[in-house]
Amino acid sequence: MNSAPARHVLILGGTTEARRLAEELAGDPALRVTSSLAGRVAAPRLPVGQVRIGGFGGAEGMARWLHEHQVDALIDATHPFADTISSHAARAAADVHVPLLALRRPGWVPGPGDRWHSAGSLAEAARLLPDLGERIFLTTGRMGLATFAHLTRQWFLVRSVDAPEPPVPPRMEVILDRGPFTLEGEAELLRRHRIEVLVTKDSGAHATAPKLTAARAAALPVVIIRRPPAPQGIPVVETPSEAATWLRTTLA
């Protein structure tokens, strides 16, 4: 008797959660998993299993890929700020009637002693900085630095995985690095560069959270950029295990 063909699962990845989910699903013979990476990082951390790298060509291109590759379920495990690809995934899944789940790690929550300033965008964060300090630790990634390029009085320490491209702030030093980071390392970095303000996105990752603890200990103000809203009507879970449970239930 022939066994049923493996069900095809597409994970939109690039995050730690996406890699852990791919690893958890890899040993299931009933599943065929493909992880998709955007290709914005020169040397990405690859998940186990089959990997595709590059864009789809918008929602229409993604819908076509889902149909042509007979995808049975789609899991959006991209970065919480990858709102464009998340929007495309919602439209594509609806167009070809493929079940879609969003895997989103929990956001950060302020604790006692935190001096957080909420911003809805990079532009709003840039408007807050002149009143907060002149030596800025900017950890929002290499994309979007043009938003801060008009700030000529502030000095920026920028940390990113790959080197940023202009336009960038005129007074800037770049550190090429990726997490996880330690509390001791982050505290030393803030001290050595005499940082007065931290700017970061609410990515929620444990690997990059020590900078928040270090900023709290140093009594520094932190500008937290809020996450864009997730597409409406899409179920959301917070852990790879929850995603795996949803997947097996959906495909049963």
Task: Please supply descriptive tags for the structure shown above.
252 residues; alpha/beta; six-stranded parallel sheet; 12 strands; 23% strand
Structure description:
The protein has 252 residues and is α/β, with parallel strands linked by helices. It has 7 helices and 12 strands. The strands form 2 sheets. Strands 3-2-1-4-5-12 form a 6-stranded parallel sheet, sandwiched between helices. Strands 6-11-10-7-8-9 form a 6-stranded parallel sheet. Strand 10 (197-201), helix 6 and strand 11 form a beta-alpha-beta unit. The protein is elongated. The chain starts with 6 loop residues before the first strand and ends with a helix. The model has no long low-confidence stretch (mean pLDDT 94).
Question: Mind sketching the topology for me?
Answer:
Layout: E1 7-12, H1 16-25, E2 31-37, E3 50-53, H2 58-68, E4 73-76, H3 83-96, E5 100-103, E6 115-119, H4 122-128, E7 135-139, E8 155-160, E9 172-176, H5 183-192, E10 197-201, H6 210-217, E11 221-225, E12 236-237, H7 240-251
Parallel strand pairs: 1-2, 1-4, 2-3, 4-5, 5-12, 6-11, 7-8, 7-10, 8-9, 10-11
Helix pairs in contact: 1-7, 2-3, 5-6
